[in-house]
Amino acid sequence: MRKKLFMIGLAVTLCLGLVIPAAAASPPSDQEAAADYVRERGIMVGDQNGNMNLASSLNRAELAVLLTRFRGGVEELQANTAYYERGCKFVDVPAWAKLYVGYCVRNNLVAGYDKLHYGAADPVTPAAACTVILRASGIMDGEGSVWSYGTACSYALGLGWIDEPTAHAESITRGEMAVLIYRALTGRHPGDTPSASQNTGDGYLSNGKPVTEENVLELLRQIEKEWPHGTVWGTHNTPGTHKNEVPSTAANRIMDVYWVSEYYGCSGYASMVSSLIFGDKTNPGRRVEDLSQIRPGDILFWVRNSDNSIWHVSVALESPDEIHAFHETDGNHGGIIRWPNQESQYSKNNLDSYRGENRAYRLEAWTRYPEDVAYTGNSAGAWSSDALN
After folding, report:
1. How far apart are CA 270 and CA 357, in angstroms?
2. Which of 36, 47, 246, 379 makes the best surface tag, with the fewest CB within 10 Å?
């Protein structure tokens, strides 16, 4: 009898053990989340086994590699190898790192201890890490700057790019560098969950309506009311600036093609507007080959012909008319959001300004209209039409 009761008790215990839910997996740390982000973008990769070695220290040679990738300079390196190799005159830089150090020197991102010594094997200090990421982000030091090497950590702390313990450490680890890069590129912490506008599926807009030029124009009118002309929208160091806090997976993939921020500046604004219209992950972007078929909501990139860098990013408000003119909206237009004066002919841009030889800029456009939604041209001149006001 005792044996029978014991077996019953054992069976009950085993059954209870089977139904006890497993402990939920711990969410990734900030460093792990940041490492996933930079690895996906090819900025920081692991060793031959794929390990990111986040607790390991980072040396100055490795830093040059990260900076080059952070700036999107890999293709430039491949096209001008000899030029960048000559930029590295230091005797203590290993052969594998010379190209990257040369790129960073040529672009005024790093400097050596003297003309012959770079300190390739030396650990990266927090001050050095903050200095180079600020420079690579376009926030330069020098005469008239709001920061210097001695205050780089304090300035980065103010931006939220670095934490106090990291700022006061003797050197920076690979994991801490991943977090710094993540925050510099996104303007937020890896664990942040910004407010979301939910997508509704391919072929549908964020308001649930089908993707049509008329329906996109309706959403643009709504966005203009919520984000009116004159709203502060600038770069990281613009006082009181707004930034993109809308989940923008599909739009961000477009921004990544050009290595521009999806959170701050004109590109961050364009990313937000696109996501408020077409949703987070749905309606993926594709290049517009015929610029005369630009439609409302398309993202426009002004590319410098001299070096293929991005000068400005905006969002089209209508298709080009018979003289190739069209309205657009943009952020960081003198530090604010700009919506055009609909009554002024001078508020329009024109395709002809970016065509032909000897032009300083060219225009490249991306659309998120599904391929089966045909271009109609019905939105040409629509932004200034009384029927749509």
Report:
1. 28
2. 47
Per domain, the residue ranges of the chain are 30-186, 213-388
Single-letter amino acid code for the residue at 159: L
Q: Is the dihedral of CA 41, 44, 47, 48 positive or negative?
A: positive
Backbone dihedral region of 327: left (phi > 0), alpha (psi from -120 to 50 degrees) or beta? beta
User: Rounded distance, CA 330 to CA 272, Å?
Assistant: 11
- Find tokens 């009554």 and name the residue: 343
Sign of CA dihedral 265, 268, 272, 273: positive
Find residue 314's DSSP bridge partners: 300
Secondary structure (DSSP) of 210-278: B--HHHHHHHHHHHHHHS-TT-B---TTSTT-----S--HHHHHHHHHHT--SSSHHHHHHHHHHHHHH
Which structure tokens are listed for 188?
Answer: 């937020």
- Residue 315 pairs in a beta bridge with 299, 329
For residue range 200-244, what is the model confidence (pLDDT) as tens digits? 467 899 888 899 999 999 999 989 988 899 999 998 888 888 888
- The tokens describing 379, both together, are 């939105």
Amino acid at 169: A
